[in-house]
Specification:
The chain is an alpha+beta fold. It has 16 helices and 31 strands. Strands 3, 7, 8, 9, 10, 11, 12, 21 and 24 form a 9-stranded mixed beta sheet that branches. The protein has a 5-stranded mixed beta sheet with strand order 16-14-15-17-20, sandwiched between helices. Strands 28-27-29-30-31 form a 5-stranded mixed beta sheet, with helices on both faces. α2 runs antiparallel to α6 and α2 crosses α12. The longest helix is centred in the N-terminal third of the chain and has 21 residues. The protein is globular, with a radius of gyration of 29 Å. It binds one RNA strand through β14, α14 and α15.
RNA sequence: CGGGGCGUGGCGCAGCAUGGCUAGCGCGCUUGCUUUGGGAGCAAGAAGUCGCUGGUUCAAAUCCAGUCGCCCCGACCA
């Protein structure tokens, strides 16, 4: 490809709309342009990177026996009603009507359509297992699209769905996909981790998120460097060490705490640390009002609570409800004398002489102990943070930021039951198919590569994702000898199957260098009069600071060696 | 949905408070000459319904109202 012929609108200045580095660089490097909030056009350079990611995905999925299909973006309401998601999905599901007033939507995901397809076509256990996938546009009407292509409304996703005859088959499919994902992200050149994610009602360790490690990531990963445990913040479990406590009973005392509602205010007023307090949160749930106790300086993890209690719906109670069930106003709730069911975080079990609300205006109680009230049990209910203990080895947790690029999930019978996707087993008996689903944010993967690889001059992309592998850069296009060699090198590399661009533009050298750096091309070959005089050209790797001088006869060989080396990583 | 900010040639901005000449600046773009190893120099150009609609006024980028778009922050922890 000739640089002069390619549509690469680079920018020196950053459009004000961009906040994060990947977004800024994608705009500056001419990868994408915004059409509307969260909706982007991919330009030739960006599309090349996107296609490279797609290619890796296709190869690895195919290797595992998954088969590519392509499903519609526009879908009828009926299927979504069947799965009950027409009601449940919320506003992210963009709905509208066609000319005949039929309700339709833009697909945010494809469980419904793929399940419909398979239930119609697959009848026998002999046709299972089956893994289908597609790389396709999704539309999710996000509350707040941001960070360019990282959280867009319209985006490219690879989604795969597995259908098995039984649990063990489904597990095998899951592991198969897990393996494929590991290979995909390795080939993309990422530094990443597979972390345990929330599995909701299904439970078990059958959901993993694939996180690209980057300081600018939106997600927090809790991990243990000792045993390798890793989970997202939502799920991360916390280990505990048993400890003797005094178990006093009835020693608590009322204290006046006028107007002190917040943990910090109460702590300050009483002259104690916030971790000597216990806060009592009142929730409205589908199982009635529920009280949750957690140490003053920690936060309830609602996902853990929901999973523990099997809650469908939960939300913090309003002031009115609080007054009704506790007898005191918001800010003064405590466990003593409460009539509603209570669950407590494990921390509470090991606390002694703590402070809690008095269920009365302007009153707290001090020197409270667990013997003073009744709870249904002590559980891991708080959100993990660094320094907490690993559930497996009791070493300390650390926190890292990451960008979620992939998510695999065992669905079980959720959709097959709702939509009646069945097959006949070898005994002639009708059974539900056991499903799994597996997603990769393809456009986000490109952005993640930039978040992970950049410097002050622009992108520093892994060779697997960079739009080109090599940039051949003649310093002066009017110098015949330079141009001749440049063309020669360019053609030779093309012949070797290397993805190369020749910067044949009649621009100043600085401009060409800046552009080359900006778009993150891993290998640059500079051909200039100065070096050529002695029979040399210069090779520079994007990620290295220094360049090397190479005899012009050896240049092809050196470049190929570099490309292969970079591909190995 | 709540709060904040922004909207002026392709990009980044100034001008607006206190309305008034031909709406400026930098980058980019076009042409010519010079230049050619890290975003060049000189010269000459092209390009803007000041987001849109309505209002106030002799006069609106500037004041008022409405509207659209974009960005940021937040969305309940007692």
């Amino acid at each position: 490809m000739l640089f002069s012929k390619m549509f690469i609108p680079t920018m020196k200045e950053v459009p004000k709309e961009a906040e994060v580095v990947s977004h800024k660089l994608m705009l500056r490097a001419g990868f994408i342009r915004r059409l509307a909030s969260g909706i982007y056009t991919w330009l030739p350079l960006g599309l090349r990177s996107l296609r490279k990611v797609e290619k890796i995905i296709r190869e690895e999925m195919d290797k595992k026996g998954a088969q590519e299909i392509l499903m519609p973006l526009v879908q009828p309401k009926e299927l979504w009603v069947e799965s009950t998601r027409w009601e449940k999905y919320g506003k992210e599901l963009l709905r509208f009507v066609d000319r005949n007033n039929r309700d339709i939507c833009l697909a945010p995901t494809h469980e419904e359509v793929v399940t419909d397809l398979v239930r119609r076509e697959v009848r026998s256990y002999k046709e299972l297992p089956l893994i289908l996938y597609q790389i396709q546009t999704k539309f999710r009407d996000e509350i707040r699209p941001r960070f360019g292509v990282m959280r867009g409304r319209e985006f490219t996703m690879k989604d795969a769905y597995s259908f098995d005859m039984d649990e063990s088959g489904a597990e095998a499919s899951y592991l198969n996909m897990y393996d494929a994902y590991m290979n995909i992200f390795k080939r993309c050149g990422f530094s990443f981790r597979a972390v345990e994610a929330d599995t909701g009602q299904i439970g078990g360790s059958f959901s993993h998120e694939f996180m690209v490690l980057a300081d600018t990531g939106e997600d927090i990963i809790i991990s243990c460097s000792n045993c390798g445990y890793a989970a997202n913040l939502e799920r991360a479990e916390i280990g505990f060490v048993e400890r003797e406590t005094s178990r006093k009973k009835g020693a608590f005392k009322r204290v006046e705490t006028p107007g002190k509602k917040k943990i910090d205010d109460v702590a300050q007023f009483l002259g104690v640390a916030p971790d000597k307090l216990v806060k009592t949160l009142i929730y409205n749930t589908d199982q009635g009002v529920l009280g949750v106790l957690v140490k003053g300086d920690r936060e309830v993890n609602e996902t853990k609570l929901r999973n523990l209690m099997g809650l469908e719906y939960m939300e913090l109670a309003d002031e009115e409800t609080i007054e009704k069930v506790t007898g005191g106003p918001l800010g003064f709730s405590g466990p003593i004398g409460l009539k509603i069911p209570l669950v407590a975080d494990m921390d509470i079990l090991f606390m002694e002489d703590f402070v809690a609300g008095g269920n009365e205006r302007d009153v707290h109680v001090v020197e409270v102990n667990v013997e003073d009230f009744a709870v249904k049990g002590f559980y891991d209910l708080k959100t993990a943070q660094p320094g907490d203990l690993c559930p497996r080895c009791r070493d300390k947790h650390t926190a890292t930021k990451g960008i979620e690029v992939g998510h695999i999930f065992k669905l079980g019978l959720k959709y097959s039951k709702a939509m009646n996707a069945t097959f006949l087993d070898n005994g002639g008996k009708e059974q539900y198919m056991v499903m799994g689903c597996y997603g990769i944010g393809v456009s986000r993967t490109v952005a993640a590569a930039i978040e992970q690889g950049h410097d002050e001059n622009g992108m520093v992309l892994p060779i697997a994702i960079a739009p080109f592998e090599v940039d051949v850069l003649p310093v002066n296009t009017s110098h015949a000898e330079s141009m001749e060699l440049a063309n020669q090198v360019y053609k030779a590399l093309l012949d070797k199957g290397i993805d190369v661009i020749l910067d044949d533009r009649d621009e100043r050298t600085g401009v060409k260098f800046k552009d080359c750096d900006l778009i993150g091309i891993p290998v640059r070959v500079t051909i200039g009069e100065r070096n050529l005089k002695d029979g040399y050209v210069e090779i520079k790797l994007r990620r290295e600071k220094e360049s090397e001088r190479v005899k012009k006869e050896d240049v092809i060989e050196r470049i190929i060696a570099h490309v292969e080396e970079l591909k190995r990583v």
